[in-house]
């Protein structure tokens, strides 16, 4: 935003929209008793990015209208009239798409869909209403010339040289088709679920993940096993009776005769 606008309103007002939408979203979560978990943190960042996008579009349109009308309040109104309908439609679609998580059976999905759906829907009020209102109240910029036309003209010339020609359009469609085919080939290799045993929030060599991996890879043959904890060399030399979590587990198993083995049931691991 600093490189593109190089003006105070173009930097501060989108950040104001992010702050207001975050206040609305976090306040709604506190009101509904929904806690913010580490696994749900990417969703607020995604909503903040969408709010920034809408705020930047409003401010950019404001500067375009200001260069034509030379009147701050009228330019803000024209920007709102031009972008409110398509922007609100995009926000509603985003909010409904996030709220679909409520259809999941897990309580985590229900809470996340409810909180994130409201958070995304609040962008209509915190950005699409507040940014033009702030532009109406704030002092009118002295310099009314729109200096962002160079970027737009550059993009327009690049599009005219590529997609604006018949050969360029065909080349773009061919590249898009190849990318779609390649994406479909990689989709078949996407792994569903956790790729490793245990919890992804913990380190791979954490005791919990190592224990979960040991349980999942146990032998289904009925055995009589005894587990004990082997302390590390440092813990053994200190003479402590309570060993640290870094101590390793070991087991000794003796085969059980078939006539004495209990009957297994689904999910049973005979140790």
Measure the end-to-end span.
61 Å
Number of domains: 2
Per DSSP, what share of the residues sits in E-state strands of 2 or more residues?
A: 5-15%
Instruction: List segments where confidence is low: pLDDT < 50 over at least 5 consecutive residues.
Output: 220-224, 241-249, 251-271
Return the CATH architecture of the largest domain. Answer: Up-down Bundle
Q: Estimate the mean pLDDT confidence.
A: 77
Helix content: 55-70%
**CATH level 4 superfamily of the largest domain:** Multidrug efflux transporter AcrB transmembrane domain
Sheet with the most strands: spatial strand order: 1-2
CATH class value of the largest domain: Mainly Alpha
Structural class: mainly alpha
User: The CATH topology of the largest domain, please?
Assistant: Multidrug efflux transporter AcrB transmembrane fold
Radius of gyration: 30 Å
Description:
The chain has 271 residues and is mainly α. The chain folds into two domains: 2-164, Multidrug efflux transporter AcrB transmembrane domain (Multidrug efflux transporter AcrB transmembrane fold); 217-237 and 244-257 and 264-271, no CATH class. Helix content is 61%, strand content 6%. It is built from ten helices and two strands; from the N terminus they run H-H-H-H-H-H-H-H-H-E-H-E. Strands 1-2 form a two-stranded antiparallel ribbon. Helix 2 runs antiparallel to helix 5 and helix 3 (42-69) runs parallel beside helix 6. The protein starts with a helix and ends in a 16-residue tail after the last strand.
């Amino acid at each position: 935003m600093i490189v593109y606008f190089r003006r105070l309103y173009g930097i501060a007002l989108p950040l104001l929209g992010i702050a207001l939408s975050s206040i609305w979203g976090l306040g709604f979560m506190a009101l509904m008793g929904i806690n913010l978990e580490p696994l749900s943190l990417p969703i607020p960042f995604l909503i903040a990015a969408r709010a920034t996008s809408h705020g930047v579009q409003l401010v950019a349109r404001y500067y375009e209208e200001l260069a034509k009308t030379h009147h701050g309040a009228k330019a803000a109104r024209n920007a709102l009239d031009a972008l409110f309908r398509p922007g609100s439609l995009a926000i509603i679609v985003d909010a409904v798409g996030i709220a679909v998580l409520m259809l999941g059976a897990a309580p985590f999905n229900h809470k996340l869909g409810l909180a994130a759906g409201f958070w995304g829907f609040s962008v209509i009020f915190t950005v699409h209403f507040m940014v033009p209102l702030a532009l109406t109240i704030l002092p009118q910029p002295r310099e009314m010339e729109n200096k962002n036309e160079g970027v737009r003209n550059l993009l327009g010339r690049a599009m005219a040289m590529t997609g604006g020609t018949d050969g360029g359009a065909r080349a773009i469609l061919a590249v898009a088709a190849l990318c779609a085919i390649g994406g479909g080939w990689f989709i078949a290799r996407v792994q569903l679920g956790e790729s490793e045993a245990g919890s992804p929030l913990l380190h791979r060599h954490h005791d919990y993940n190592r224990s979960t991996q040991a349980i999942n890879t146990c032998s289904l043959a009925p055995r009589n096993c005894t587990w004990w904890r082997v302390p590390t060399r440092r813990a053994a030399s200190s003479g402590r009776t309570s060993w640290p979590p870094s101590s390793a587990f070991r087991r000794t198993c003796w085969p059980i005769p078939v006539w004495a083995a209990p009957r297994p049931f689904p999910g049973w691991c005979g140790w």
